[in-house]
Amino acid sequence: MSFYAVLQHNTPVLTPPATSSALADLIWLNTADMLRGFGISRPPWLHGLATILARPAARRFARQLLTFDALVGTSGLPTASAWICSHFAPGLDILGYPPPNTGPLLVVANHPGLLDAAALMTTLNRSDLKVIAIARPLLRALPHTRATIIPVGTTVQHRMNAVRHAMRHLQQGGAILTFPAGRIEPDPAHDLTAIASLTAWSASLDLFGRIAIGLPVVTAIVSHVQAPAALHHPLTRLRRNPADRQWLAAILQVLWPHLATTPVQVRFSPLLHADHDLRTNVQFWAKILMQQANTTCL
Predict the structure, then answer these.
(1) Contact, 11 vs 79, CB < 8 A?
(2) What's the Cα-to-Cα distance from 271 to each of 97, 100, 105, 172, rounded to whole Å?
(3) Which whole-number Å values give the CA distances from 224 to 52, 77, 135, in the listed order?
(4) 20 pLDDT tier (thresholds 50, 70, 90)
(5) In this model, does residue 10 exceed pLDDT 50?
(6) Same-domain pairing of 139 and 272
(7) Are residues 82 and 208 in the same domain?
(8) How many CB atoms lie within 10 A of CB 280?
(9) pLDDT per position as a tens digit, 110-163
(10) Which residue in 23, 30, 227, 270 has its CB near the most CB atoms, within 10 A?
């Protein structure tokens, strides 16, 4: 299925109707992310020079984010997500069982970062999709995108509020996407320690299983978002900590999208139904789909 071909014919070229403050905020946030990725915080002269050098790329990505947000407002989340995927991935492969495109649906996914959310939004093709996620500062500059987010905090009360909000949306026939790990996980295409992260998937899944018996649920596994050429780029040796290296690799992939040479893959489980064993059932299918995604097993 080629969402990109549809985009080329149907998606208008937009000039983001952004305020100067929205653009400035995104440039600042993008620049800060780049400098953090490279581990540049001092001395002041180096930080200042790096800020100047990073600004053109930060501005370019900020404008892409604003165009994405404008598309969310005019054409919907699936079209906007397909547009952003087309700029940062050479393709998008959908595997497994097609999830329903109408009616209440809970989608439980892994979180390897980069394009995972956009790939899921594209492949689910649900204009009524809402995402349970931490409200990041950049969302202040992206109002249409912010409207699709159900914010979740770190306290039990915040998590309960997010579940209640999600349940109201499901009762109205909408779709919910949740990342129960609550953090970035390994890409299962290259690292089967991703399976170990399943044990940390949130107990909120058990809550859905108790209060929404019979709710349609699918497990989704995203893979091949992290390009090996970025993960093993010589510049990543600037960072010693493995997590810092992964973060820098993600920055490099945004700076140089040509490093990604393999289509992003999204795998869906068969349709499940919520019950008291929901978390166990979701984890069971997540493990199977991760093993299918792992290129080292081929």
Answers:
(1) yes
(2) 8, 8, 9, 19
(3) 32, 22, 25
(4) low
(5) no
(6) yes
(7) yes
(8) 12
(9) 999 989 999 999 999 999 999 999 888 889 999 999 999 999 987 888 888 999
(10) 227
Largest CA distance in the chain: 60
Say if CB 110 and CB 186 are below 8 A apart. Answer: no
* 217 three-state secondary structure: strand
Within this chain, do residues 163 and 32 fall inside the same structural domain, yes or no?
no
Which pTM value belongs to this model? Answer: 0.90
How many residues are given for the chain?
Answer: 298
Say how far apart CA 261 and CA 91 lie, in whole Å.
9
Confidence of residue 296 (pLDDT cuts 50, 70, 90): low
Are 277 and 130 in a shared domain?
yes
pLDDT, tens digit (0-9, with 9 covering 90-100), for 179-194: 999 889 999 999 989 9
66 and 187 assigned to the same domain: no
Q: Check whether residue 71 and residue 83 sit in a common domain.
A: no
End residue of a domain, out of 9, 44, 75? 75
- Give the whole-angstrom CA distance, residue 230 versus residue 239: 13
Residues 70 and 86 in one domain: no
Which of 261, 252, 237 lies closest to 61 in space, CA to CA? 252
